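Design a sequence for this backbone.
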């Protein structure tokens, strides 16, 4: 289910972006962005602060950050370091896999 949501979010962002149409996805970069967003989520950064810092205009990068922030804040935040790390890894993997699938479809 998470993979399907991630794929829909990624395809929504990329379908509305002329930049994305002109270049291949940078899935490793998307992975790093997903990690940063989920780390912030797991460390208690408020969603509004994430938006303020990352969603500054209507650029492709801002739209990707918005999609990642929306997805991360739908997930639970944990107090245990073990569960925090698992949430970060799971989110990264879900986003990376969805990005690769989207890239294959565009192929």
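Sequence:
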């Amino acid at each position: 289910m998470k993979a399907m949501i991630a794929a829909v979010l990624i395809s929504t962002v990329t379908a509305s972006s002329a930049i994305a149409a002109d270049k291949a996805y940078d899935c490793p970069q998307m992975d790093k962005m997903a990690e940063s967003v989920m780390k912030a989520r797991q460390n208690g950064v408020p969603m509004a602060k994430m938006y303020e810092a990352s969603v500054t205009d209507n650029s492709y990068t801002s739209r990707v950050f918005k999609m990642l922030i929306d997805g991360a804040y739908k997930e639970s935040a944990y107090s245990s370091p073990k569960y925090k790390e698992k949430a970060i890894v799971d989110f990264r993997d879900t986003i990376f896999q969805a990005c690769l699938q989207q890239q294959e479809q565009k192929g």
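Residues 2-11+27-106 form one domain.
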